[in-house]
Amino acid sequence: MIFHKMDVTKSADWKATIDTAVQKFGRCDILVNNAGTSYKNKPTVDVTEEEFQKTFDVNVKGVYLGCNAWTQQAIDRKEGGVIINISSVGATRPRPGLVWYNASKGAVSNVCFVRSELMPLLTIRRLQKVLPPNWVRIRYEWFPYVHS
């Protein structure tokens, strides 16, 4: 096991993290996008632009950058793997006072359904894992590896 400090909102940090994993273990088969943030529950009009931006940068941009960094190394080694994007029950059952957090997690859930369009050359097992307080729903999909 290794620890690699990073900022999920920085492309260079994702590249360095994936490169470190590949260097240490020879490959990186699994990506878990689990970083997330929110703001204090409050009326939408009281959410600052900075709070909004941080929420979307970490919750959405972080998933985007992580998926892209991981996918590139998987393409380079011509193998597939697993991407696990952690969302929230707020994506499908939004809570009052967290409009922009709920929207960001909705984006994470939606990317699980369309990500296959972005990875046509790999066998990717995507797991959409939504973790509300009392239940877990997992969606599995397999995509065939296409030799180029």
Head-to-tail CA distance between termini: 34 Å
Alpha carbon gyration radius? 16 Å
- In CATH terms, the superfamily is NAD(P)-binding Rossmann-like Domain
What is the class in the CATH system? Alpha Beta
Number of helical stretches of at least 4 residues: 3
Under the CATH scheme, which architecture would be assigned?
Answer: 3-Layer(aba) Sandwich
Largest sheet properties: 4 strands, mixed
Label the overall shape.
elongated
Strand order of the largest sheet: 1-2-3-4
Q: Element order, helices and strands?
A: HEHEHEE
Which stretches are low in confidence, meaning pLDDT under 50 for 5 or more residues running? 124-148
Instruction: Kindly identify the CATH topology.
Output: Rossmann fold
The figure for the number of domains is 1
Number of strands: 4
Describe the 3D structure:
The protein contains three helices and four strands, in the order αβαβαββ. The chain has 148 residues and is of the alpha/beta class. Strands 1-2-3-4 form a four-stranded mixed sheet, with helices on one face. α1 (11-25) runs parallel beside α2 and α2 (49-76) runs parallel beside α3. The protein is elongated and about 50 Å long. The model is unreliable at 124-148 (pLDDT under 50).
Q: What's the layout of helices and strands?
A:
Layout: H1 11-25, E1 30-33, H2 49-76, E2 81-86, H3 99-114, E3 124-130, E4 137-142
Parallel strand pairs: 1-2, 2-3
Antiparallel strand pairs: 3-4
Helix pairs in contact: 1-2, 2-3
Keywords:
4 strands; 148 residues; elongated; alpha/beta; 40% helix; four-stranded mixed β-sheet; single chain
